[in-house]
């Protein structure tokens, strides 16, 4: 991840949420980079809580969630930042790719189509909790105030589903028809661990219901206004 950030063509700053481990575990390249700051959570609290606490340290106008074992294509930040600022929207996302151990990639086109989406519309492409999520959470670059209004949900997994649904429900945005994030496939990833599927359906149900309720409430308030 760090190497891919160093190849970006726009300024960036990273905040690392260390969930129950100390900064002494950081590789030397990260520890010596002034653009990298850390939040060492004193005890393990899970990804959702650790990331939300790290959000307190963000001082950039835009935020992109990311996992430390993944990476960004070289154009990822510049392409989304340019589209976001030009359109004056709250977020900009794209497609993603699975990066396999042999170096090959598989493109994933999310169910939400490319183009502009008004607040709440992305959720409508998530037909049911069992279906594919409507947009890739880590492909979203969003205004910081928007991310703070829709942070990670308090789930043991699927917390990023909540963030994606919340961000796209609170503000309009743009989906670009190009890959902006690469998921590195490997045996150690969380989704490959035994027992991961036990709570996946419940997490999806919770995030889906959250999106439906949020969209309904915001639509109702808009009609009243």
TrEMBL record:
InterPro entries: Glyco_trans_2-like, Nucleotide-diphossugar_trans
Cross-referenced Pfam families: Glycos_transf_2 (PF00535)
Protein name: Glycosyltransferase
Span of domain Glycosyltransferase 2-like: 3-89
């Amino acid at each position: 991840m760090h190497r891919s950030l160093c190849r970006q063509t726009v300024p960036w700053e990273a905040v690392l949420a260390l969930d129950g481990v100390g900064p002494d575990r950081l590789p030397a390249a990260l520890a010596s980079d002034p653009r990298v700051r850390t939040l060492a959570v004193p005890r393990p609290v899970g990804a959702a809580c650790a990331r939300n606490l790290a959000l307190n340290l963000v001082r950039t106008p835009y935020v992109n969630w990311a996992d430390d074992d993944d990476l960004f294509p070289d154009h990822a930040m510049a392409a989304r930042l340019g589209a976001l600022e030009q359109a004056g929207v709250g977020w900009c996302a794209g497609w993603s790719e699975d990066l396999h151990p042999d170096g090959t990639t598989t493109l994933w086109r999310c169910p939400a189509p490319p183009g502009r989406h008004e607040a709440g519309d992305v959720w409508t492409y998530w037909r049911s909790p069992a279906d594919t999520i409507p947009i890739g959470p880590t492909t979203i670059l969003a205004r910081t105030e928007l991310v703070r209004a829709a942070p990670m949900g308090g789930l043991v997994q699927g917390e990023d589903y909540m963030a994606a649904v919340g961000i796209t429900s609170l503000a309009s945005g743009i989906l670009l028809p190009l890959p902006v994030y690469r998921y590195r496939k490997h045996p150690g990833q969380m989704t490959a661990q035994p027992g991961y599927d036990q709570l996946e359906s419940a997490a999806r149900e919770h995030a889906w219901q959250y999106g439906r309720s949020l969209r309904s409430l915001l639509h109702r308030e808009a009609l009243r206004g």
